Amino acid sequence: MMAVMSMERISTALFLAVAFLTVAGALTEVFWLTEAAGLAVIAFLFLEYRRIPTLQRVVGGGLLALGLAACAFTDDPLATAEHGVLRVLPFLLLFASIVWLQASSTRSPSLLALRNTVVSQPPGRRFAWVTGAGHFLGVAFNLAGLSLLTPMIAKGVDPRLQLRLGRAMVQGFGAGTAWSPLYVGTAVIIASVPGVTWIDVGPVGFVIGMGLLVWGWAYDRAISRARNPGTTSAPPSPVALDSSVRLRVAGILAALFACILIFVEGFGWSIPVALAVTAPPFALIWATLIQRQDPEFGPAEVTRSALSILPNLRGEALLFTGATVFGVGIAALIPDLQTGGSLPDWPAWLWIAVLMAGYLILSALGIHPVVTVVLITSVLSPQAMGLSPELLALALMVMWGQGTNISPFSATVLFMARITGTSGWTVAWRWNGVFGAATTVLLIGAILVVYASGLYG
């Protein structure tokens, strides 16, 4: 028992070191600090490897092995592998930041009141409420936001209702990557496409995200009437959402986003660094306010919760490290296409369609979206394809959520599979397969409209 506790403490210290060194390296531009963060990642994975869940260990370990094999065939194998490890640091920094918000979000009276309102909605309105709640809770608190709604789809719930509401959650959640800077994929895409800031693409992405929520609701209404799934429970009596609760929830989200954007747009920090600096104090202040209504909860509990969760990120750390090293290794073996000399002479609209459709197909085949993003941003330049950097970033952002929803190995799908007691293949393909394909067609059309508008000309 003492050995396990000691290992937990060492793992926690290593993950904290990853976060601290990554932030320090980014703000001071002292490269050895960033290199030290990469060494801490390797030490963390070495220490925690045997405790990683089997599926994540197989997938993440397999990607890492293939990535290192690809690096071995490059001109400088060690430097290529190091680049892959260092490129995963923003992902891990975001994971470490989000855990600080999880404890406060699950004990917040305002968010719990919102959850009660959502759960109590009658069948005719429930999908729209669940989609909206999954979206706006997800954009701020990531999977911690979804966890507030999971009692609705836990094991034992009527399978038809579980499928419908589960689909509502992941569809609303996935739409957030079109604009929210707090999503892992969104933040890394913006950082990976040179010359793009959140303010360039966020507002347009928000409009597309809102359109995805409406589209998801319309799609559900159409298939619900066709299949008439119904429910085995009597219609509940809706619990009204008090106006004061609405204001507090809006205030929490607005304050969090304002803090992030001040650092990003005002100081020029990257989104992962801004979130890492913001999340801990934000969570502690939030916990202090919650303590007024819940004396048994406070900053000390948030700190203990965050530190206890960090070692549990071992699966995500291996999966993203493996995917990133694999993407960097493969990209290093592909001839440099940045100038466009070896690329097909396709018009820009065709590049958009091919990239977005290919993104979904690769995700459905089990290739994690991070691999696709790393390959595209490492090998291809937007200028070589006749695209602006902003348009490429926006196309990747709107597709990240669809990719993670249809990938059997993404964190979102694995989370939903664990909660519902189904397989990742069921969640990815049965719940989201047809919807993801139809949505991709619509998203290609939306990006083409943005392209034709000349907004990013």
Question: How are the SSEs ordered, and which strands pair?
Answer:
Elements: H1 2-28, H2 31-48, H3 54-72, H4 77-87, H5 89-107, H6 109-119, H7 123-141, H8 143-147, H9 159-175, H10 184-192, H11 198-227, H12 243-267, H13 271-291, H14 299-309, H15 314-333, H16 348-364, H17 369-379, H18 389-406, H19 411-420, H20 424-431, H21 433-453
Concise description?
By secondary structure, the protein is mainly alpha-helical.
Keywords:
21 helices; mainly alpha
What is the element string, with H for helices and E for strands?
HHHHHHHHHHHHHHHHHHHHH
Q: Number of helix segments? A: 21
Any low-confidence stretches, pLDDT <50, length ≥5? 229-234
Q: What is the CA–CA distance across the termini?
A: 61 Å
Number of domains: 1
Radius of gyration: 22 Å
Reported for the largest beta sheet, the result is:
none
Could you tell me the strand content as a percent range?
under 5%
Number of strands: 0
What shape does the CA trace take? globular
Task: Round the mean pLDDT to the nearest integer and report it.
Answer: 87
SSE class: mainly alpha
Name the helicity range: over 70%
Please provide a written account of the structure:
The chain is mainly α and 457 residues long. It has one domain (2-228, 241-453). It is built from 21 helices and no strands. Helix 3 (54-72) packs parallel to helix 15, helix 5 crosses helix 14 and helix 6 runs antiparallel to helix 7 (123-141). It is globular and about 65 Å long. The termini are far apart.
